[in-house]
Amino acid sequence: MDYYKTDIEQLHSDLVAGKTTSADLTDATFKAIAAKDDDVQAFLALNEETATKDAQDQDAQGIAADATLAGIPVAIKDNIVTKDLTTTAASKMLANFVPIYDATVIERLRQAGMIVVGKTNMDEFAMGSSTENSAFKTTKNAWDHTKVPGGSSGGSAAAVASGEVLVALGSDTGGSIRQPAAFNGIVGFKPTYGRVSRWGLIAFGSSLDAIGTLTRSVRDSAHVMNAIVGADERDTTTVPRAQEDLGAKIGQSIKGMKIALPKEYLGEGVDAGVRERIEAAAEQFRAMGATVETVSLPHTQYAVPTYYIIASSEASSNLQRFDGIRYGFRAKDVQSLESVYVRSRSEGFGDEVKRRIMLGTFSLSAGFYDAYFKKAAQVRTLISRDFEDVFKDYDLVMGPTTPTPAFEVGSKVTDPLTMYMNDILTIPVNLAGLPAASINGGFVDGMPIGLQLIGKAFDEATIYQAAAAFEDANDYKDQTPGGQN
Amino acid sequence: MITKESVAHVAGLAKLQFTDEELQHFTGQLDEILNMVDQLSEVDTEDVPVTTQNVVLENVLRADEATMVTPRAELMRNVPTEKDGLIQVPAIIDKEED
């Protein structure tokens, strides 16, 4: 079994035909992890015993012809709670936390018959763009182990790109699925806000957080997304909708599609090699019969400050729950209740988490609320309106996912501002609640770069249509780390 | 320019404590971040409403029906220290103030 040479539909047909079993796939997955993860460091916890039993159960009950995902292994970002399987959010605060319930997305994947093989590394509480903010380990980029895998879903991205697993779940608050997908040359998908239940996702920025997929192919992404979408009574921000196939338009021609390319997405700070790949992608779309025209999203330059105020404010509120009382880290030798709170939080959180709690608390504090939080929430409206204006005339927005390919481990981690600017092209999507994908847009100096496609709210199908057309027209997916075939 | 004193005040609100050296370091970094954020002041937001969430739903209701909830023993599973089935914490009332 070689995950570089297969996909969900192939595995499913092999499972149904009896050419392989879920137990064999699961065993092969753990062997691949054992062979590669000493270098890649993508996993924080493995679920070997339970996964093996779950796989045997799937085999025993038989893989139904319409159960596309049944018996196929999946990795889960470690901020999505999994019953009886340690879930840390890569924080010392939750180092020993064993959830007593499954997140809705996990329930749905289990319902579909998927096998949860383990939990992947990330920036602590999903705060970061390189996975270097993990309290436990530094994950490496699948293509070059001296480079970062991106973040915060860096473990999920590196695990998929290294061929350890075929698919993984991640979360995206400001680009945390799309940016690591871009850095590792795979497909990252962030759905519309309200499409997927956040119940059981350890909260960071509740008005921005979205659970999505990291996969090697566009079709695999649609298969897994279809399994996790839908309203959930336990997350009242999920939007009830008739059942739909997000991949319904995959394979259809994009002739006549109207694509917008914002000039701000190819502006200052965007690497020349990246710009060249995106312009080449625009040409390819034109050759397929789509129109690609330059537009303006004038408030793009304000996205980073707007995001850091809003996300940090929400985080400072969400992270109040970590008080050392009911669960999580409690400092030793504390003498008073106040010092349980203060010392547990001060010893349990890492620096980036503290920075954001501080920024958020400051932005919400008396005397600063209007100038910071309220101002950012108003600029957020203007950023959403930019997209609304463009989507009056266009079906999709395209651009790079990140200004540059993956950077060196250690090169930005001590400079928060430089790290934050890396997210400028992914953040606007979260502020506006829109769906977006990052797919492999080619290579610059041997490193993959991401082509980002942004859709109208709840129009994931058009993103998948264009993404599949681009993927099919190129051989990027067949190129793999450590030897481009 | 944010001062070390205001950073210490915010730390208190957030239930965090820093050494003097850490406070110096965080003050510098927060100052840089707030300088970056200050570019928002150049945006005209007169009469622009705030966006705090993107979902158009209002008043999401469900039936008020009793359901089985998580058993008590399960809920206690991640409690750092317990005694007689209760969560154990240090003294809340300072004896000297009695």
TrEMBL record, chain A:
Gene3D superfamilies: Amidase signature (AS) domain. One of its GO terms (molecular function) is transferase activity. It holds the Pfam family Amidase. It catalyses: L-glutamyl-tRNA(Gln) + L-glutamine + ATP + H2O = L-glutaminyl-tRNA(Gln) + L-glutamate + ADP + phosphate + H(+). InterPro entries: Amidase (IPR000120), Amidase_CS (IPR020556), Amidase_dom (IPR023631), AS_sf (IPR036928), GatA (IPR004412). GO terms for cellular component: glutamyl-tRNA(Gln) amidotransferase complex. Its EC number is 6.3.5.7. Residues 24-463 form the Amidase domain. The active site is at residues 77, 152, 176. Keywords: ATP-binding, Ligase, Nucleotide-binding, Protein biosynthesis, Transferase. GO terms for biological process: translation. PANTHER family: GLUTAMYL-TRNA(GLN) AMIDOTRANSFERASE SUBUNIT A, TRANSAMIDASE. HAMAP family: GatA (MF_00120). Allows the formation of correctly charged Gln-tRNA(Gln) through the transamidation of misacylated Glu-tRNA(Gln) in organisms which lack glutaminyl-tRNA synthetase. The reaction takes place in the presence of glutamine and ATP through an activated gamma-phospho-Glu-tRNA(Gln). Belongs to the amidase family. GatA subfamily. Heterotrimer of A, B and C subunits. This is Glutamyl-tRNA(Gln) amidotransferase subunit A. It comes from Lacticaseibacillus pantheris DSM 15945 = JCM 12539 = NBRC 106106.
TrEMBL record, chain B:
One of its GO terms (biological process) is translation. It holds the Pfam family GatC. The keyword Nucleotide-binding applies. Keywords: ATP-binding, Ligase, Nucleotide-binding, Protein biosynthesis. Allows the formation of correctly charged Asn-tRNA(Asn) or Gln-tRNA(Gln) through the transamidation of misacylated Asp-tRNA(Asn) or Glu-tRNA(Gln) in organisms which lack either or both of asparaginyl-tRNA or glutaminyl-tRNA synthetases. The reaction takes place in the presence of glutamine and ATP through an activated phospho-Asp-tRNA(Asn) or phospho-Glu-tRNA(Gln). NCBIfam families: gatC. Heterotrimer of A, B and C subunits. Belongs to the GatC family. This is Aspartyl/glutamyl-tRNA(Asn/Gln) amidotransferase subunit C.
